[in-house]
Amino acid sequence: MDLSYILNELGEERGQYYNAVSPPVMQSSNFAFNTVADMRNAMGNEFDATLYSRGQNPTLNILRKKLAALDGAEDALLFSSGIAAISTSVISLVKQGDHVVCVENPYSWTDKLFRQLLPKFGVTSTFVTGTSIDDFTNAVKPNTRLIYLESPNTFTYELQDLKAVAKFAKAHGIITIIDNSYCTPLFQQPIESGIDLVAQSATKYIGGHSDVMAGVVTGSRELIRQIFEHEFMNLGPALSPHSAWLLLRGLRTLQLRLQRSFESTRIITTWLAEHDGIETVLWPFSSSFPQAKLAHEQMQGCGGLFSIALKNSSYAKIEAFCNGLQHMLIAVSWGGHESLVVPAIASIPPEKYDADNERHQYIRVYIGLEDPQYLIDDIQQALKKVKLSETVYS
Predict the structure, then answer these.
(1) Which whole-number Å values give the CA distances from 333 to 88, 109, 182, 360, in the listed order?
(2) Predicted model pTM
């Protein structure tokens, strides 16, 4: 299906709403029926019916069709946040006594899901690096129900070989799910590689304007319906119609924004790699990245998220550099128009900082839509401030 058709036309029956170019926000919690029989049919199949917006809603259904098509999936389900999409789906797929294999260092709340929440209900997890298929084959147990992937992750960017993991999982009757927030469907197609379910924080690139929270899961109609009819309807993590409309707006420019961020990041990471104040640049499409070959094989692009470490890094130096930036904001998330930084030390008290732990030294950077030279100039002046302060106080 053509990308332009998906982003601009799919699901948009304009004749049903006065030929408006932009779909309306169907801001209604409730929907009426002409007959009791019509209501009975809707109540018997709420997955396909418009009954109550906790389930389905006309504005959400337009978005649902587009996001499923982007992933090459049969169906999609929308949520009020990315972690709601991940947690609800995972909870739907496991039961007491089941075992999960999860990659190390996933998104923080995903980590808490597997380490703190699921054990309360008798679900255990094994964490693996995931950079080799052997990590998974060695970790699987007779009661393994699910393999959870995040490729790449969003801080150190380790990848998993999606085709190899999917092939192994299918041979053993194990369901696979991946967080694809880093790449979006435009830069990586996990379902095409054999992965069963794909989750995303639509807050990021899909929304694109840092003004909406949302999540999405795509996959087979059977699995999506299973999640919807049980855990989704019980837990109620529904997305609002207005949020769905904002995501529809974001989709119109997704391709342009993602490509701009990707191209700017290539320029900036190349410059950083040659700077005498930078020790490390981690970006999957950098030639120095340990898994660059796999990244180019299964990703069509890389987006704007990468990490750096300063030369002769220290807690104070990292903090001074981030505080010295004038145009790049100190904030979590990514995918919006604005460029951001978040250092690992933001969640590490000074007394727990380990100078020998590489992860403690990393500063995650997101490149938005600003001119790349504008951002290079900002980074340069912040690095100069840090160098000058070191000279003064040395």
Answers:
(1) 21, 13, 11, 18
(2) 0.95
Alpha carbons 363 and 309: distance in angstroms, whole number = 6
Residues of the chain with CATH 3.40.640.10: 3-252
Q: Other CB atoms closer than 10 Å to residue 67's CB: what's the count?
A: 27
Question: pLDDT-derived band of residue 392, with 50, 70 and 90 as boundaries?
Answer: very low
User: What Cα–Cα distance (Å) separates residue 25 from each residue in 20, 160, 170, 239?
Assistant: 12, 39, 40, 12
Listed in order, the ranges of the chain carrying CATH 3.90.1150.10 are 254-393
Query: How confident is residue 391, by pLDDT bands cut at 50, 70 and 90?
Result: low
DSSP 365: E
Question: Using 50, 70 and 90 to split pLDDT, how confident is the model at 55?
Answer: very high
Fold held by 254-393: Aspartate Aminotransferase, domain 1 (3.90.1150)
Cβ-based burial of 241 (10 A; exposed 0-12, middle 13-18, buried ≥19): buried
Class for the domain spanning 3-252:
alpha beta
SS3 category, 199 = strand
Strands, DSSP E only, in the chain? 75-79, 99-103, 124-128, 144-150, 175-179, 197-201, 215-219, 278-282, 305-310, 329-330, 340-343, 363-366
